[in-house]
Amino acid sequence: MSTQHKTSHFLFFTLLAVCTFSFIACTHQNSDDAQMNAFIDKLMAEMTLEEKIGQLNLPVGGDIVTGGVHSSLSMEDIRNGKVGGLFNLKGAQAIRDVQRIAVEQSRLGIPLLFGMDVIHGYETIFPLPLALSCSWDLQAIERSAQIAAREATADGICWTFSPMVDVCHDGRWGRISEGSGEDPYLGSRIAEAMVRGYQGASLADKQTMMACVKHFALYGAVEAGREYNNVYPDDFHAFNEYMQPYKAAVDAGAGSVMAAFNTVHGIPSSGNRWLLTDLLRDQWKFNGFVVSDYTGVQHLGDNGVSASHEQSNIQCIEAGLDMLMVGEDLDQLVAAVNEGRCSKLSIDNACRRILEAKYKLGLFDDPYRYCDTTLREQVILCDDHRAEARRIAGECMVLLKNDNNLLPLQKKGTIALIGPLADARNNMAGTWAVAAVTDKYKTVKEGMEDALRGTGARLLYAKGSNLMYDASQEAIATIFGHSIRDDRSVETMRQEALNIARQADVIVAVMGEASEMSGECASRVNIEMPDAQHDMLARLAQLGKPIVLVHFAGRPTVMNWESEHLPAILESWFGGSECADAIADVLFGDVNPSGKLSVQLPRHVGQYPFSYRAMRTSRPNEGGDFAKYSSCYADVSSKPLYPFGYGLSYTTFAYSDFYLTDTVMPLNGSVDVHVTVTNTGNRAGAEIVQLYIADRVAKGVRPYKELRGFERVELAAGESREVVFTLDADRMGYYEPYNLTWTMESGDVDVMVGANSAETEKRLLHVQ
Ligand code: BGC
Asked: How far is the C-alpha of 263 from the C-alpha of 418, rounded, in Å?
């Protein structure tokens, strides 16, 4: 048989196999859906209107209260079928006990859904999402979500309020810590990876849980970075900068979506029909359920678009909201439906979607399937999970500066460890770690002690300063009882630190933000190193000894002084339960840092909102310095201090052989972009190769540079690898003005490859 024949036979059979498989999968899916629909039809036929409305009710079951209102959870309501689910209740036994009331004591025995904010791990805590995104390692991110799901489902939870995919261009906003940074392309890939990690191949698997994409939509654009503020991107900007990660998560099959606190087009998201129905369901074909955020429905009153709880409830449900998190006066909906103020169909639709979620999670087969109390021992915080968390935490740290290869440190001599965060156990997990067991996590001091044990190196420790001088500000920074305040005088603490520093060969300063300085309702206008820590650092710098700053933060920090005066800076963010060991791994070179910034670091807070993806302006200013009548500032460069995509390694990488397979690409074709990366140093390391494009002329304004591909490559010393990206119209497209369809126009495009957004080489591609 000729090669050509063999190929066509092969293609024919492959095609046949694919079609048969898709047909079987599709038929199977249809029959599953038909069974589910029949089951739910039958159940709903037996439900009273009160019971249907009960399914829409999601009171809080645990202690985490993020609004002023604490829902009045009563077991009586559960018995009466007035509750659809509970959230933030921890523990398989506690959940089993409550589930029993729903299943055994309510009229129809409908099981409850148990949700939780499992944001970056359950008890094994992974780095904060912002940190995680700096790994650019989709497999690691998926794995972190998978482990989170394993632990949470072993403890009764089947639904997580994650991933948070809000793109953010403003470091003042505390919740930038919960997302994947400033870029919609990177954010979309991470959103998909997280959904895959949580939900696995099937929600019917007991070790997977349902994801909830939040906060839909545009929450990351809160004006002035102020929490719960309004957002104003126009549609063009909204779709091109913010919407893509939500859509990516929906396309990846996320089972639920959470409506944001903010308004969109002047209407609160929870009650926004355009957002929840026209866009999400009709255009994006989302078929899961939508939950409000905490008391989100009542906020229609705060926003002044509703005069009563009844009006808010009706508006939201009719807009396409299915479940009310900490809602109020749901009982009133019975009369509203009976008297024609609320459509029965909207209630039926919402109830059905929640029952569908319970069905998909297998709760009707076995309501206790996530409540196996014997699993905790084997699964939660097990050695494997902790080892993975440690490995992943090491990948997330970003080495910002390393003059004269100060890092890695040798395990010898005397090291002075200084800073209020160096021995602060309850600070390690970072914000939004609801299930954390902080007493089981090591401090940085303990991690370093373990790493140095038996080496003969001496580790001296002094706290050096409080977080900040002002005690009331420090109380806000440690608001959830994580106080680490020291009563000693500034001078006593300072002298103690200077004293050990004088004896040391090298100083490691562990400083920055406490965990509650980022996260919800932690907006700040001062995003520099807090005063007391800055002053301590400045005194240490005067000693003239080598200093490494290990910087804790949940947001981008302005670090001009640090960058000018300190030889080495490691951005460790909040690395989770295992970060003490992970920091020691990186400091002593057992792990070579490879993280790259998913959010650029500004020179001044006044630069916000700020992103490398800045749209082209009139009168552009390329260099960033002042030039009259160009887009710039008179008093500070408009460039970042450290650009998006930036991060150093203990080795070096060189890029070569960068070419496109063609300089012309038809709109319906593709070109490959080749580049070779070589590890030119003398130790193994990982490089994150980045691909950017700039569409020179388009109908709508496009950014100067936008990420459209990346690959993390691990290379032994001296090793080279060719990386190939495929570009086509879909990969290069954007939402065009007015009709907001995803389009690629013909014309010239700069294709750029490099180690970060500011250091790229380019080739020209003509699209026609
Ligand atoms: C937050 C959500 C969170 C919810 C439940 C709200 O305040 O905005 O992100 O999922 O509380 O804890």
From this structure: 44
Average pLDDT over residues 107-129: 98
Beta bridge partners of 160: 116
Residues 660 and 736 in one domain: yes
Q: Whose CA is nearest to atom 4 of ligand 1?
A: 294
- The residue whose CA has the least distance to atom 5 of ligand 1 is 294
Confidence of residue 742 (pLDDT cuts 50, 70, 90): very high
pLDDT score recorded for residue 69 = 59
- For residue 253, pLDDT over 90 is answered with yes
593 shares its domain with 689: no
Judgement on whether residues 577 and 710 belong to the same structural domain of the protein: no
Q: Is residue 482 part of a domain?
A: yes
For position 480, what pLDDT does the model report? 87
Q: Which of 86, 161, 164 to mutate to test the pocket of ligand 1 (most atoms within 8 A of CB)?
A: 161
CA of 84 to the centre of ligand 1 (A): 18
Task: Report the 3 state secondary structure along 425-464.
Answer: HHHCCCCCCCCCCHHHCCCHHHHHHHHHCCCCCEEEEECC
Quick one: pLDDT band at residue 447, thresholds 50, 70, 90?
A: very high
Tell me the catalytic residues. Answer: 293
Together in a domain, 493 and 550: yes
The CATH number that applies at residue 566 is 3.40.50.1700
Site to substitute for ligand 1 among 214, 293, 302, 523, most atoms within 8 A of C-beta: 293
Indicate whether 545 and 677 sit together in one domain: no
Ligand 1 centre to CA of 293 (Å) is 6
Considering only CA atoms, which residue is closest to atom 12 of ligand 1?
117
- Among 607, 641, 668, identify where a domain stops: 607
Domain extent, residue 574, equals 392-607
422-435: average pLDDT: 95
Q: Compute, in angstroms, the gap from residue 481 CA to the centroid of ligand 1.
A: 19
Same domain, 523 and 469: yes
Return the CATH number at 659: 2.60.40.10
66, 118, 432, best to mutate for ligand 1 pocket (most atoms within 8 Å of CB): 66
The structure tokens listed for 479 are: 């608001």
Mean pLDDT of the chain: 95
As to burial, measured by CB atoms within 10 angstroms (0-12 exposed, 13-18 middle, 19+ buried), residue 751 is buried
Q: Report CA(426)–ligand 1 centroid distance (Å).
A: 21
Q: Distance, CA 723 to ligand 1 centroid (Å)?
A: 40
Question: Residue 25 domain-assigned?
Answer: yes
Q: Which two tokens stand for residue 95?
A: 């959940």
Identify whether 593 is part of a domain.
yes
- My answer on whether 403 and 516 are in the same domain is yes
Q: Which atom of ligand 1 is nearest to the CA of 214?
A: 9
CA dist 701 and 615 (Å) reads 6
Q: What is the mean pLDDT of residues 154-164?
A: 98
Q: List, chain by chain if needed, residues with CB within 6 Å of any ligand 1 atom.
A: 64, 66, 88, 117, 161, 214, 293-294, 520
pLDDT at 5: 45
Q: How far apart are CA 751 and CA 659, in angstroms?
A: 10
Instruction: Say whether both 572 and 687 belong to one domain.
Output: no
Of all protein residues, the one whose alpha carbon is nearest to atom 11 of ligand 1 is 294
Per-residue DSSP letter, 721: E
Distance CA 503, CA 488 (A): 22
Cα(66) to ligand 1 centroid in Å equals 7
Q: How many domains does the chain have?
A: 3
Choose one of 607, 641, 670: the last residue of a domain: 607
Instruction: With respect to residue 242, please indicate whether it lies within any of the assigned structural domains.
Output: no
Q: Given this model, what pLDDT does residue 130 score?
A: 98
Tell me the one-letter amino acid at 643.
P
- The two beta strands, 506-512 and 720-728, are unpaired
Task: Give 42's contacts (C-beta < 8 A, 6+ positions apart).
Answer: none
Residue nearest to atom 2 of ligand 1 (CA): 293
**What confidence score (pLDDT) does residue 550 get?**
99
